[in-house]
Amino acid sequence: MATDYDAPRKTDDDLSEDSIEELKARRVDKTSASVDVDEAEQAEGFELPGADLSGEELSVRVLPRQADEFTCSRCFLVRHRSQVAKESNGQAICRDCVA
Predict the structure, then answer these.
(1) What are phi and psi of 45, to 5 degrees?
(2) Digit-coded pLDDT (tens) for 22-51
């Protein structure tokens, strides 16, 4: 692309005016291209919390707590014994809860 070096240069005011006009034109273009979406149709795909899951089956095998694991007394997660950070009154607390 050829550049005309003899053409008058634009000042900062000219540049800001041009950019504002361009932004306004872009904003009008974007709003005219919006598509009407039926909210009822869009909401059909969402599953709400508390939905009836009585027909669902558990697909994960759940193992009981092993001999080398403990249940954290704060977060109630089953962790490996190496994660014990503190024990008081027979209750173990994991490293994440102590931090």
Answers:
(1) -80, -15
(2) 777 777 665 555 566 777 777 777 777 777
